[in-house]
Write a structure and sequence with these properties.
heterodimer; A: alpha+beta; six-stranded mixed β-sheet; four-stranded antiparallel β-sheet; B: four-stranded antiparallel β-sheet
């Protein structure tokens, strides 16, 4: 066989192979292009892949385990935990604390009258303090006629003020839990005959039509000669007296 | 000829060698890049500036009764509630929601009557927690040019009033919309993976919500205080009806037809043959496109550069705020089909790094408003597990906000932080143990966002 036809055959095979390869490449390229142009759909939400939602913090105490009645020593301890040396329980009152689930989260809270150490008033009024200082008479009630929002001037505790500290409970131990520190400090909120009124009574009792919506238990007392309740609005503690007997 | 064939064969051989090498060239880096930020009205390049400006005009457009405003509504324009410091931002405006709990403690949205004064039977608006603050009637409106009466309902009373029995009530502050195109472009998977990295007791709850423009399709919710929306178009259509009372192709039924003159069976002007109701020009598309083309909120660069803000940023991380207020998320790659296949992530929004300081999930931090707002997927039953949870507020842009938390009830950063409880209890206890100086540094950081 001469070299000419052999070369021609070789060239022919190479052309066919190359053509085939090129064609294959072209097809792959088109396919790749098509794949690139086909938008990738995000994964559809699937209940199976969704972690279970975080359970509501364990707050509800088993019904058969009523909280033990508070002891003054425990109250003193909690006040010290929250306020350090800045404030102490106001021992001049016959009843200086009550307990209840005031914010309605299922965990027992403590409301205790305290007096600030006159030398520590700056700490009590510190804008960056660890408690929210407010006057419940200046707090508006959701869905009702608005009070002054925001208050005309920041609330300040003065020397000799008796302040109502409401310390929110955390978990089944409630206010006794060492982690329970959220505190609202109320000025003009310590009156006479302080007692806890349960949410059930407030929602279903005779006065229910007159009362604002309540989220938890309330503190019933007489302030400035008027009977009323201090209750949680969902954001703050407010005073409500109209129609409260 | 033989020589030509030889040369041709050699060239082909060379091509055979080179082409596969070219074909197998590594794909260019897929690294994510920072999303553009700014408190401005400039496009993020999803659309041209001219298109973005046109969409903004539509977003700012003030609608009246002739357009279909009301009968019950909250505002005449999107920008009325979303404006600070530029169109698309926040505002001091809040909306009101209400309902009650049934005997089992389940939330039931409010039912109320309008037009029932003077012994009239009234019109019932049922099972709706949103209580609109404004109404178009009683009202008589004249054309400012011709002075002819164009709306004449002097005796009907559409104003909604909360009945005493609807005693679960809350205010909800309007949310920031800047940068939401990037949030929409976060994949379901990214959001679904977040709780895996959160400690027990702090795992966020996901919502799965319908995509109105893709019937039958669902997506992980991320917009609204209850994560009730996943798509900006769904959100636009819902807000146009619920906040402005203007029906549209995604929501063709009015809340009430009392004193409503504009028909709800008008076809779209685009010739599609679809019913666009009171929105024949499909303004909802412009609203969604406007939001998608906004930049992410920028930081206060001068404050962010201070030592206080930088230490505050470290403290924010150290005490655990960023377990829920997650600093950084990355959007899905460009080309990803989202919203049940109704939207493709464009290059301007794809593979972008954003810093929203949120996980966009629901948590119980003791501030829950008691309102359930999202149905269990595929049912008409409200998911009651969410009623005392709120979406983690994205903190980007928070320096433009004065009234804090979902209800705007807190005026200082410290107060707002101290209001966190429940799932956030441990983190807040860490905060409580900071010194006053450190707290101020943390607040400086927040004020730089």
């Amino acid at each position: 066989m001469s070299r000419g036809p052999l070369t021609a055959l070789l060239i022919c095979v190479m052309i066919v192979s190359a053509g085939s390869l090129l064609s294959s490449c072209a097809r792959r390229s088109e396919q790749a292009k098509a794949t690139q142009e086909q938008p990738r759909a995000e994964s559809a939400p699937s209940a199976a892949t969704s972690p279970a939602p975080s359970p509501t913090p364990p707050t509800v105490r088993p019904a058969n385990e009523p909280p033990a009645p508070p002891k003054p020593g425990e109250v003193q301890e909690v006040v010290a935990r929250v306020f350090g040396k800045v404030a102490n329980p106001d021992t001049s009152l016959s009843t200086n604390f009550v307990v209840g689930d005031f914010n309605g989260d299922g965990s027992e809270d403590l409301a205790v009258a305290v007096k600030a150490d006159p030398a520590q008033l700056g700490e009590i009024n510190n804008e960056m303090a660890n408690w929210t200082l407010e006057d419940p008479k200046l707090v508006s009630i959701p869905g009702q006629a608005k009070g002054p929002r925001p208050p005309g001037k920041p609330v300040h505790a003065e020397k000799g003020d008796s302040l109502l500290a409401i310390i929110h409970g955390f978990g089944p131990q409630g206010w006794r839990n060492a982690e329970a520190r959220q505190t609202f400090l109320l000025k003009n909120a310590v009156g006479n005959s302080m007692q806890t009124e349960t949410a059930t009574v407030l929602r279903h009792g005779k006065e229910r039509q007159k009362l604002p919506p309540v989220r938890g238990d309330a503190i019933r007392q007489t302030l400035g000669g008027k009977a009323g309740i201090i209750f949680w609005t969902g954001a703050k503690y407010a005073w409500y007296s109209a129609g409260v007997g | 000829m033989t020589k030509f064939l030889k040369v041709f064969a050699l060239l082909l051989c060379a091509a055979v060698l080179v082409i596969p090498m070219w074909m197998s060239r590594p794909v260019e880096s897929q690294g994510a890049t920072e999303a553009p930020t700014g408190m401005d009205t400039l496009t993020n390049n999803m659309v041209t500036q001219a298109v973005h400006d046109g969409d903004r005009v539509t977003f700012e457009e003030r609608d009246g009764v002739q357009k279909g405003l009301g009968p019950v509504y909250n505002a005449q324009s999107c920008a009325e509630c979303h404006q600070n410091p530029v169109t698309g931002g926040i505002s001091q405006i809040s909306e009101l929601r209400a309902g009650h709990n049934d005997g089992n403690g389940n939330f039931v949205p409010a039912t109320l009557k309008i037009n029932d004064d003077g012994g009239l039977p009234g019109v019932t608006i049922a099972n709706r927690s949103l209580i609109n603050q404004r109404a178009t009637c009683p009202g008589v409106v004249t054309d400012p040019v011709t002075h002819a009466i164009i709306y004449n309902h002097p005796n009907e009373q559409a104003q909604e009033r909360v009945p005493g029995a609807e005693n679960v009530r809350t205010r909800r502050m309007t949310t920031n919309l800047l940068g939401l195109g990037f949030v929409e472009a976060i994949s379901n998977t990214t959001l679904q993976n977040i709780p895996n990295g959160q400690p027990n007791g702090m795992k966020g709850q996901l919502t799965t919500v319908p995509v109105a423009e893709a019937p039958g399709q669902f997506r992980i919710g991320r917009f609204g205080w209850k994560d009730q929306d996943a798509s900006l178009l769904t959100f636009s259509g819902g807000a146009y009806l619920n906040e402005m009372g203007i029906t549209n192709r995604l929501n063709t039924s009015e809340v009430t037809t009392l004193c409503d003159d504009v028909p709800d069976n008008t076809l779209c002007n685009d010739g599609s043959g679809h019913v666009c109701a009171e929105d024949p020009d499909n303004d909802i598309d412009a609203f969604a496109q406007f939001m998608r083309a906004t930049k992410a909120p920028s930081r206060d660069a001068a404050l962010a550069a201070t030592n206080d803000a930088q230490v505050g940023a470290s403290l924010f991380h150290a005490i655990g705020c960023d377990i829920c207020h997650i600093q950084t998320l990355t959007t899905a790659p460009a080309g990803t089909l989202i919203n049940g296949g109704a939207f493709t992530v464009p290059a301007a929004l794809g593979n972008k790094i954003i810093h929203p300081f949120s996980d966009f999930l629901l948590h119980n931090i003791g501030t829950g408003d008691g309102i359930a707002q999202v149905n269990i997927p595929g049912t008409n039953t409200l998911d009651q597990t969410m009623k005392n949870k709120m979406r983690t507020a994205p903190l980007w842009g928070m320096r433009t906000r004065n009234e804090l938390m979902h209800d705007g009830e807190n005026y200082t950063r410290n107060e707002a932080i101290l209001r966190h409880a429940g799932e956030a209890n441990g983190v807040i206890n860490n905060y409580i143990f900071l010194s006053t100086t450190q707290k101020n540094q943390l607040v400086a950081f927040l004020n730089s966002l």
